[in-house]
Write a structure and sequence with these properties.
The protein is α+β, with helices and mostly antiparallel strands. It contains 19 helices and 26 strands. It has a five-stranded mixed β-sheet. A four-stranded mixed β-sheet has the order 1-10-9-8, with no helix packed on it. The longest helix is centred in the C-terminal third of the chain and has 18 residues, at 510-527. The protein is globular, with a radius of gyration of 25 Å. The two termini are 46 Å apart. Residues 1-21 have low confidence and may be disordered.
Length: 608
């Protein structure tokens, strides 16, 4: 709230324009009798009744997690996706219709003020240890997320400034207030929260250290059953998961065990897959789809390939420039660098034309996406102009620009060796503009830690796209700049942008939010500290054919078909009998027909 109050003139103007900027009224002490309770048990089931339970699904990550905590320092690594996907929300999103569906709440109702939502909790919901999930766990969750002991500024801020109040009406009814009224569909997901098991936590100054490796009870279908540090983490399905028979969870989350193994090199991971020691493998990278995914296991039909189009917000993919690191504190240098990166050449060569150029930070958000913006194109003349104007107008004997004895050299931190060839091309092309790119490949945990501690110069990475509308505060507000453990890895610090971000965050109607989102997107483009690269409107995967999918393969929002958890995950199953049969056929050299198997599903393709 402090950063908001700094801009009093701006706020005063908006207060005159709309009374909804006023602080929301406190929640009533008694549950209103006039609430109109809603639920949704009418949308289609999105899993297959043919699904079978059992088996061990073997997957991989490239680095071991630095903690099992869900919040606090070092909790944002790739393994956190498993932990978060295994915790249910109050209300979910149907992956095809995008309508709200029950999860931990059976019903919801909106208050008359446009700020408040009321939830009826499912009395069947249980933590992993069998303890009922009650309203007290939500009351504690708000206290937990606001606590300084968790060392999580984003959560502290969000659960103070966006979610302002939570009231328990009885053991299974709560009300939540947001700081600003929003359209109902957005409020339902923004003014929401997950419970935190009060009976598990001792919240004090040693919480971060004490809970680094403790396995927290959750509400999802799996629980961590084994941890071998540096090697793997294994989940086991709960014997009597409380939501097994619920409409939108039935026939899902079918493997008995999920083993997540650490394999630090993706090329080595592919060798594990070829040997049948991993069940599936992502083939999004053209190198794998076109070149590596060949050979007998495909010709003989033991392994299938599938290309499945989806309709989801695109991950924010590209090069993030740290404005706190010279010479990237100079906008002219950032512009020059953008024009020196030949992204299209990467698409046309190593990516074989499979990917598309990303234009802005937030694509795939419907009306919220500003489609007028175009990413800066490779243009050496423009790069020269900007860099000359910035004072980098001389070159050394090796062609690299120099200024006051310093070379124009930029270190790029990245963590995926599969991107080596992309970055080598960009480095070669940038050299034509007199820029040296030093490629710094680290394991994922080390890279992410370096980036979150602001020790990077430029980060080659992607943030997951999610939600119904873009989020700007965590990435671009100055409150999160110049400090570690925030998502503002560019250290953007612009008071004008701050004003618009707060206005966007507090906007009460969709038209205003859309307008502000477009303006913010233009400002991000003008800032030049994010250089967009690629987008991919589909998933491609290889799978041993003992893995089975529903007849429709996936949903509108399936960004992975063999994801074992999550809102649209857990649709596949392992056919143990088929596995025995395929392994026997493999020993005998017998084909599994159809062979080869290539599935193309364009059900959710936007531009057919």
């Amino acid at each position: 709230m402090n950063s908001f109050l700094r801009f009093t003139v701006f706020i005063a103007g908006l207060l005159l324009a709309s009374m909804s900027w006023a602080e929301p009224a406190p929640l009533p002490t008694k549950l209103p009798d006039t609430l109109h309770w809603k639920t949704n048990n009418d949308d289609p089931i999105f899993a297959s009744p043919k699904a079978k339970r059992g088996g061990r699904f073997r997957s991989f990550i490239t680095s071991f997690p630095l903690t099992l905590r869900l919040v606090g320092p070092d909790s944002n690594g790739s393994f956190a996706n498993y932990l978060r996907a295994n915790n249910l929300s109050l209300v979910g999103i149907h992956p095809d219709t995008l309508n709200p569906i029950p999860e931990l709440a059976t019903h919801w109702a909106f208050g008359d003020d446009g700020h408040s939502i009321f939830y009826r909790l499912d009395p069947d919901a249980r933590w992993s240890d069998g303890t009922p999930v009650t309203a007290d766990d939500y009351v504690f969750a708000l206290k937990f997320m606001r606590s300084k002991f968790i060392l999580a500024p984003w959560y502290n801020n969000y659960f103070s400034e966006v979610i302002t109040e939570l009231v328990k009406y009885d053991d299974y009814t709560i009300g939540i207030t947001g700081s600003v009224a929003k359209p109902a569909d957005e409020m339902l997901f923004e003014i929401s929260m997950s419970p935190v098991p009060e009976h598990f936590h001792q919240l004090n100054e040693t919480w971060v250290r004490d809970y680094n490796w403790r396995v927290e009870p959750n509400t999802g279908p799996y629980q961590i059953s084994e941890v071998r540090k540096g090697k793997y983490v294994e989940f086991t399905r709960k014997q009597h998961w409380w939501a097994d028979k619920k409409r939108y969870f039935q026939y899902r989350f079918n493997p008995e065990h999920i083993k997540v193994k650490v394999i630090r090199d993706i090329n080595i991971a592919y060798q594990y897959f070829r040997k049948g020691e991993l069940e599936s493998f992502p083939l999004l990278m053209p190198h794998f789809w076109h070149k590596k995914a060949q050979g007998d296991i495909y010709k003989q039909g033991y392994v299938g390939k599938i290309k499945f189009y989806n309709d989801v917000p695109q991950p924010i993919t590209g090069l993030f420039l740290n404005e706190d690191s010279k010479p990237l504190d100079d906008k002219l240098v950032r512009y020059g660098l953008a024009h020196a990166l030949n992204v299209q050449k990467v698409i046309d060569t190593v990516l074989r034309g499979d990917y598309e150029r990303m234009q802005t930070a937030h694509e795939g958000y419907g009306d919220y996406s500003n489609t007028d913006i175009r990413a800066r194109r490779f243009d050496l003349a423009k790069a020269d102009d900007y860099l000359d104007e910035a004072g980098w107008d001389k070159r050394g004997p090796d062609g690299i620009r120099v200024k006051e004895g310093e070379r124009l050299s930029i270190r790029i931190t990245y963590y995926n060796s599969g991107h080596n060839d992309r970055l080598v091309i960009l480095a070669q092309e940038a050299r034509k503009a007199g820029i040296e790119l030093k490629l710094n490949l680290l394991d994922a945990s080390t890279a992410f830690k370096q980036i979150l501690e602001n020790k990077h110069q430029a980060a080659w990475m992607a943030w997951s796209g999610a939600g119904l509308s873009p989020r700007f505060w965590e990435f671009y507000h100055s409150t999160n700049a110049h400090k570690p453990q925030t998502n503002n890895v560019t250290n953007t610090d612009d008071p004008v942008m701050d004003e618009k971000i707060m206005a966007y965050r507090k906007a009460t109607d969709k038209a205003t939010r859309v307008r502000l989102a477009h303006e913010l997107e233009q400002m991000i483009h003008d800032q030049g500290s994010y250089i967009p690269t690629f987008k991919v409107p589909y998933t491609r995967e290889a799978f041993w054919r003992w893995l089975k999918l529903p007849a429709f393969h996936g949903t509108r929002t399936s960004d992975q078909l063999f994801s074992p958890m999550g809102g649209s995950g857990g649709l596949f199953w392992i056919d143990e009998d088929e596995k025995d049969r395929i392994e026997a056929m493999k020993d005998d050299g017998e084909k599994l027909r159809p062979a080869p198997l290539l599935i193309l599903d364009e059900t959710w393709k936007r531009d057919k």
